[in-house]
Amino acid sequence: MARQKVGSIGRALLRHRGATSTVPALACGGLASNGPSPAAAQKCCRGGETCGSEAPKAPPHRHHVVGKKRSEESLTVSGRAYSSTAPKINHKTYLWARYNEMKRLVHDLIPPGVCNLLNPSNIYANNEVNLAEVDIYGFDYDYTLALYSNALDAMIYDTARDFLVKHYKGISKYEYIPNFTARGLHYDIQKGLLMKIDAFHYIQLGTVYREMKPFYMPIRFSAPLQGPKMKQYMDVFSIPEMTLLAAANDYFITNDIEYDPVHLYKDVSEAIGMVHIKGYMYKWIMQDLEKYILRGDETYAVLDRLASHGKKLFLITNSPFSFVDKGMKYMVGKDWREFFDVVIVQADKPHFFNDCVKPFRRLDSNGDLQWDKIKSLDKGQIYKQGNLFDFLRLTGWRGSKVLYFGDHLYSDLADLMLRHGWRTGAIVPELEVETRVVNTEQYAQSLTWLQALTGLLERMQMHKDPESKKVLEDWLKEREELRAVTKNLFNPQFGSIFRTCHNPTYFSRRLCRFSDLYMASISCLLNYDLSYTFYPRRTPLQHEAPLWMDQLCTGCMKTPFLEEMAHIR
């Protein structure tokens, strides 16, 4: 199907090329570097139609012109005629002609089907991974085996806000706003600023919030992005906390109350922590599994398929056994432990991966601690705490034959990839929604035209006359509007979690660094054979050609592979 769609682009290109040889619009400023001169373009107006009289014909070719008459006659150089009496170039008309022709190409040569090339159930590769070499599959629980509905975010927010009311009574009026924030944002603790930062430590303009509205911030950010002054929110559970921070800051600022943002951050963090420590979240989910847990049947299908193919499975989670047990029974069945060779709860990640002090403790079937020394990790048993070094020693599961899935890039995946050589898979639930946005015609048309317009600005900036400068200013304004449109399609405040205007986000760079594969949910594994090899797509560097043949062959092309559009980047 993807190849048929790519073929339709090629056929559209052939039809377009056949037509442009006789279409007057191309005389108004084609895209090729050897296209018509600005003089030829002056008879075109902004809409692309012709206006005024025909361009004056070049004077007849003459030889042996001498004296003063030589400067008044046309000169011939390499067969091309030049005249000192050539009409004055209308740069404004020429620029708009180029603009209109580029816009026609973008509009006409993207067939409707090209907008549905991405499948939300795809698995994406940062490194080459051959599943035939993977014998052991490991999983986190929350937001990996168990996906939760958005109703959980509202409950966490409301409960943490109620903890704060005793200190800040006016905050009770702030209701939870779904999708106000996005994963991967940074929070400046000392200034109380929530912001989106790209992979090169630049702040995306318009994505800094101190209250519930934008706050101006210089584009370059030079302070460390980790440490006591800065917090990055990397997991899905952090979304209610970011929203509550914005609401609390808004309460103090709008009421003109003096406050220390550091104290506020501490209070909000403690309130959110109380929701987890006191077990409120566990209680809500256990009382209404159907309301909060999503797609449990898919979790069963994944585990059953892996186990039936002889793969070893293990679970390492920070959640308590009673909570995990009830959720797994709901999703998989009462015999869910038969799927797993090792089950570890309350593991205290990320310390589990880098601390060799805490020993494993065994739990009985009721979840009570036992006192025997752990000499092996046995199937059917439940273990608490422990550390990765003992886990490796007792199981012998090392290196690239192990693939572990989790949702938190730091707590779940970073140490495993950097220090222990495991393969890692990141679960990014937001990927499903963002893929649907990318597949819309509005996004495809807006983004392609944004890139085309940027190319025009880059090539036409040598025109310095006042009228040309005014045209370029109009284009720059339109470019900013297009950036806002594409950003708002994902999230009106912060846009996509993967991109700023043109760079990857800081979150996206960490995702590429700490995960070999990433996907919306573990159910994406059901779409692939267990001997499948994932290959990372080659993406061009700034100095390389913008389009590659593998993009054409795999149907992952975002803009038509056209000579005329070679400047679209």
Automatic annotation (TrEMBL):
Belongs to the 5'(3')-deoxyribonucleotidase family. Residues 59-68 have a biased composition (Basic residues). NCBIfam families: HAD-IG-Ncltidse (TIGR02244). Residues 51-71 are annotated as: Disordered. The lineage of its organism: Eukaryota, Metazoa, Chordata, Craniata, Vertebrata. SUPFAM superfamilies: HAD-like. The gene is NT5DC2. One of its GO terms (molecular function) is metal ion binding. This is 5'-nucleotidase domain-containing protein 2. Keywords: Hydrolase, Magnesium, Metal-binding. It comes from the Eukaryota. It comes from Denticeps clupeoides.
